[in-house]
Sequence to fold (492 residues):
Amino acid sequence: MISIIPVHGLPEIREGDDLAALVVELTQSNDMALQDRDVLVLAQKGISKAEGRIVHLDGIEASETAVRIAAGERDPREIEVILGEAKSIIRERGPLVITQTKHGFICASAGVDHSNAPGPGMLVLLPVDPDASARRIRDRVLELTGRTVGVVITDSFGRPFRQGTTDVAIGIAGIPAIIDLRGTKDRIGYELRASRTAIADEIAAASDLVRGKAEGVPAVIVRGLQLEGDGTAQEIVIEPEFDLFA
Amino acid sequence: MISIIPVHGLPEIREGDDLAALVVELTQSNDMALQDRDVLVLAQKGISKAEGRIVHLDGIEASETAVRIAAGERDPREIEVILGEAKSIIRERGPLVITQTKHGFICASAGVDHSNAPGPGMLVLLPVDPDASARRIRDRVLELTGRTVGVVITDSFGRPFRQGTTDVAIGIAGIPAIIDLRGTKDRIGYELRASRTAIADEIAAASDLVRGKAEGVPAVIVRGLQLEGDGTAQEIVIEPEFDLFA
Fold:
């Protein structure tokens, strides 16, 4: 059996906060202290805030490209910030852009979001290196508790072909990204159907089940997995030439 | 807290088996009897087997198209079966095909699979109407136990942009497909980022966490969700003209 346990009661996260310490303190006082092999799942927004990945629109000047994409329907300075976070624009429809982030993830608006920002006129960016963020949290939990946990940093991504968003892993430490179920490829090197499970994304999706509607639970413990391995979310990024689906 | 509970001990499913009754019996004898609002998650393969959705390659004659796609690397009769299950071919690379199924789902090989088939030379097809299959299971559980549960039928799908497969919902009953978090659209009608959560897909992904490597656990209980609503997996299918990502 696997348990998905929300960690309630985290304060609003501010730049410089020791997020790992806050989670450790809360879980200990709530009688659900972290255990070896727990996976601590943290929503990206809390990590980004702790790391100071906040931009104020006041300081942004929109380029011509940003003004064009905004099309009078969106603040062009927001588009400018998105362009700064994007490696490339994959799709552009009206003022909405699907981007490849500098990490290689394909998502709307390069992960830039104004919801749940610290204040009006502020945008929250994705962490610069979410795998490194996950590792820092993992190391800090070990330091504070002696427990060896996995860490997954999640964001809600839309996807082709299917309505709605699911939470996916954008940074991981102490767990594998992918579990190879069969280890079989066909002779031209494509993966065979259902041979490799994106376990980190499945953990991310599972954690969202306890988040509730208000996005008020940035930390979730997934307990009962027996995962071996230590991957990165970068391994989940697929090279276009091997992307059968795109 | 949410619990993800594997139902161990199901026998190999055969055509005509009362899958709901088998699960009910097992859960009752294992002291984890189904409760109101539980979500019973069933892997597609068990449903398909119970419904007799098995094809023997012996009876199949490959068309020229199937022979061409198979390219000497795959049994052309298998391609023929896939073509029969597909509404259209979305991508074709070597002998691998990404298809839209008759239900509208985009997946490899129209969901046709020879792994875990009842025997050699046999293929398992997706259920004809997985939403109806889910509803039948839900009704049968109610009849047998008096409990009102949600049902999700899952399959492992690859996806663009990200490595590996995740389990997704192909049929549901008694739960919503999508939860609308903010109810906001921009003025041209596109959904705003992260506004709608594909809860049925997240439940499907969560259930896969206890399946283990051998795919030996076709039934999983997800306990602790408090979902209102009654949707269909058909609602998850996105019309191409509204598919920002594709």
User: Anything to note?
Assistant: Helices of chain A lie at 19-29, 44-50, 64-70, 76-85, 130-145, 199-208.
